[in-house]
Design brief:
Length: 333
């Protein structure tokens, strides 16, 4: 699985569908469209839309965004979509993990569990199915053999009760072409995803990790954040390197909208030549931009207000999934 900063063929998103998640659906539609348009400025984008919502979505999306009519339950393509792999000779593969709506938190989810296969078929790549229940937001890879994930997520009994930690680790490495899994504690108190790593710590380059820190004295998750930072400080990647850690704030002052509100600045999207970052209208926005400029020199930073996405429990990374470019002329995988 290549790192997210490698060239993309396109980005995949899913149009909001589960109305009970969103206090103001019209505002959420507008935020999703704004994210889509920001990404489309850098690379092609396909929006998966339930057939019943096709006309409504087209009214808010520009004509250069492709609409993919397909039955869906929800709107988190990072988690319901496939993880794409590339072969050194150019072939590509889509890994289809099991999806159970983050441990059965929402129902139904059968159409979302089938979504990865639908994307893989439309993308025209080979499919490899896994019996592991896992979500793309639960992993970050450096493209050089290292996976970051959390102990609070995939080993949770609400996902893989019959799997040992060693079995989960082996499955992740085998399916994603990795050599090492670095386990962070995660966050057992985070009620929506059980501590997805893409809200905690993500690779920005080989050996470089952006990680959330407790930037305010009244941060209720200060212990969890420090535990993850401590784990990173003593870990090594698949090539034996220490991690350089850049600490980023959370937009805690934006969390008045509810306990599920995703206030993580590490939940951004790396596009071809750019970064699409969340903006919450709080003082930490500027700090986060400066950190991203340091981590990604030469990339254009575009900030998009996402308060009406974040209130549903996720951020920009959660609603996107990159499809990598083949490394050369496509061949059979």
């Amino acid at each position: 699985m290549p790192a997210e900063w490698e060239p993309h063929l396109r980005c995949w998103m899913m149009w909001p569908r589960r109305a009970k998640v969103w206090p103001d659906m019209e505002a959420t539609y507008r935020d999703y469209a704004a994210v889509a348009h920001a990404i489309r400025a850098f690379e092609p984008l396909v929006m998966a839309v339930h057939p019943d919502d096709e006309a409504q979505a087209r009214g808010l999306l520009s004509a250069d965004i492709e609409i993919f009519p397909v039955p869906i339950d929800d709107s988190w393509s990072r988690d319901a979509g496939p993880c794409f792999l590339v072969h050194p000779e150019g072939g590509r593969l889509g890994v289809d993990f099991q999806f159970n709506a983050w441990g059965g938190k929402y129902s139904p989810y059968d159409q979302d569990n089938a979504f990865a296969a639908a994307v893989i078929e439309k993308a025209g790549v080979a499919r490899e199915a896994s019996n592991l229940t896992a979500e793309g937001g639960g992993i970050s890879t450096d493209g050089e053999g290292t996976i970051l994930t959390t102990l609070s997520c995939f080993p949770n009994k609400n996902r893989n009760p019959d799997w040992t930690l060693e079995q989960i680790e082996r499955e992740l490495m085998d399916r994603l072409g990795a050599d090492k899994v670095v386990w962070l504690p995660g966050d057992e108190e985070e009620i929506e995803t059980d501590g997805h790593v893409d809200g905690i710590a993500v690779f920005a380059a080989p050996g470089l990790v952006l990680a959330t820190t407790a930037s305010q004295p009244d941060d209720p998750w200060v212990e969890a954040k420090q535990a993850n930072l401590d784990a990173l400080a003593t870990a090594r990647d698949a090539r034996g390197r220490d991690f350089r850690i850049l600490e980023m704030p959370d937009a805690l002052t934006a969390q008045h909208k509810g306990e599920r509100f995703c206030a993580s600045y590490v939940n951004f999207y790396i596009a071809n030549g750019g970064i699409v970052m969340p903006e919450y209208g709080v003082k930490e926005d500027g700090w986060a931009r400066e950190m991203l400029e340091e981590a990604f020199p030469g990339r254009e930073i575009r900030a998009v207000g996402i308060n009406d996405v974040a209130v549903g429990g996720g951020g920009i990374h959660c609603i996107t999934q990159q499809e990598p470019m083949p490394t050369s002329a496509p061949t059979a995988y």
